[in-house]
């Protein structure tokens, strides 16, 4: 049963990525931070579960053939114009005997009811988030969202104010992925991180 579920999840991931139609050149992801311990670190896909990874940190630049640290961006082109948003993807290293080959996993966030810190997840599931680039900085578009800190009873929120928002609420935090405990990249949904180990970072792509 687990094999069937894994295959279906893998096929869902392939379908989501394939739907984007176009893929960028490969790149590394590098952290920018005021913290000397974090600034200049590179990211790689680290294991958290079956067909699930998260962004973990390298303290040095990976080799050009290090597939654990090589990512792509998948996007669409409509009437000759490239979309602003797409999927950040990573090629899972399938074994030759695996029934699913060329399995592309997409970036998502793992939300929890106990915290506003959402660890990054690179998975084969049906969940994924659209991202964009402000120059070479990774962001999540805020289009269509509403700031509930400004809500007034019976007054419809100004959702259009969110269009054009390029949210970069990335943090490096110690995160528990039972049974693993990693220094990983996470997203803070709002306000200050509930997790006291979190430090703000920017994520920048660097083409291989």
UniProtKB/TrEMBL annotation:
The keyword Signal applies. Keywords: Signal. Residues 24-207 form the DUF7907 domain. The keyword Signal applies. InterPro entries: DUF7907. Residues 1-19 form the signal peptide. This is DUF7907 domain-containing protein. It comes from Podospora appendiculata.
């Amino acid at each position: 049963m687990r094999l069937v579920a894994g295959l279906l999840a893998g096929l869902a991931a392939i379908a989501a990525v394939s739907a984007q139609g176009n893929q960028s050149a490969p790149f590394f992801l590098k952290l920018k931070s005021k913290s000397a311990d974090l600034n200049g670190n590179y990211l790689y896909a680290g294991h958290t579960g079956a067909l699930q990874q998260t962004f973990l940190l390298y303290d040095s630049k990976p080799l050009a053939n290090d597939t654990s640290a090589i990512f792509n961006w998948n996007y669409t082109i409509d009437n000759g114009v490239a979309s602003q948003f797409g999927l950040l993807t990573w090629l899972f290293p399938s074994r030759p005997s695996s029934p699913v080959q060329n399995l592309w996993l997409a970036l998502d966030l793992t939300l929890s009811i106990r915290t506003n810190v959402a660890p990054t997840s690179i998975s084969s599931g049906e969940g994924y988030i659209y991202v964009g680039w402000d120059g070479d900085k990774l962001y999540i578009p805020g289009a269509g969202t509403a700031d509930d800190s400004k809500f007034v009873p019976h007054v419809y929120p100004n959702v259009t104010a969110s269009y054009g928002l390029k949210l970069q609420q990335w943090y490096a935090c110690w995160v528990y992925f039972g049974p693993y405990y990693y220094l990983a990249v996470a997203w803070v949904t709002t306000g200050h991180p509930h997790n006291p180990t979190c430090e703000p970072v920017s994520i920048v792509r660097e083409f291989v």
